[in-house]
Amino acid sequence: MSETGTWPLALPERVDAVIVGAGASGLSLAGHLARSSWRDRQVLIVDDGSHALDDRAWAYWSDSHDALDAAISASNDRFWVRTTDVAHLVRLNAYRYHVVRGPDLGRAVDAALTGAPGFRRVSGHVSQIRDGVRAAAVVVDGRTVRASWVFDSVGRGTSAPSPAAARAAASPGMALAFVGRRIETDVDTFDVGAPTLMDFRTPQGDGLCFVYVLPSAPRVALVEHTQFTSDSGDPAEPGEAALDLYLQEVLGIGGHRVLGTEHGTIPLVTTRPRPPGRRVVPIGIPAGMVKASTGYGYGRIQRHSAALTRSLATLGHPFDVRTPPARHRVFDDVLLDAISREPASVVHAFERLFVGNPGDCVLAFLDEATTIGQEVGTILTLPPAPFLRALRRVAARAARLRTSTLGGPTAGHSKEIR
Length: 418
Description:
This protein is an alpha/beta fold.
């Protein structure tokens, strides 16, 4: 069964795999592996406890079952999209909009680990990951553990990006800033069967903003303000003020209690993530699992975990994992550019997206689970002008980046590029 604790003298010298980090991606991979033929292997899950699961929650959509479905706290076949002009209830067929809370994910993974006696959760700080030909080395609180495979969710094993990659990742330099409160009201207020995916009835300020509402009971919900921003400052203060205004003036909520809070910033990077090393494989954010145009990552993490597990179980290595087509990164880049330059137009585009297409088609499009023909059909329902302007800007940036990358000052630099 799984064990949690600090092992100052009992860290094993060699294991089959080390999973670095026990957030959504680390725990998900551990749960998937523990329910596969890898359940008899020796796997170490190392986490320093800096990001507790207690107040964390993830929403995602899916049209299939998953090894960790037991972690789902709520599942809905409809949700609301609201603007100042439209209140549209999106109804789903095959897809479901799920919510997973941190404690439920932890319990689901612990249940999976009961059938995997060689899986152990360890409290410790990973200071270094060293790749190798036949094994990798992980330094945990000063002690070295060798592993056939290391799955890194915190970026310890990722080398610094090249200058060209850094410039590309910084353009247009967008991030998703969020401030949320889990509240309890004095009277029944929320429709548990229909969460709000996007409500644009909040001051837009300098960037596209919306609020989502995830009820867990008629009087309890997570209400979160989200902003696409290129501002590197602290988003908490304007987000808190916007939440106050939304609760009072939009939802008309009077007396309530705050049960928990959360805030943070998610970088929205459209460049291709670095590939796996010889024995070190990125997962989670380092593997590009957060979709840049939406900020959602949990569903992608589940599919990535399943693909890694399937590859390990059938081929003995974790490299048989599908790489998404490059066109999806272009779509994300275009949308982010439009958001940064013409946020009001994008609000109208989201309205048209959900009103003009079946809910399942929209979610499949956002999930990168569509063909080119289906994508063209969806894109044609959107107002073209802001996205054509954004596409021109994206193409111009890409051309400038290629010129600056290939036009180095020395012959030696050009030789290195080749």
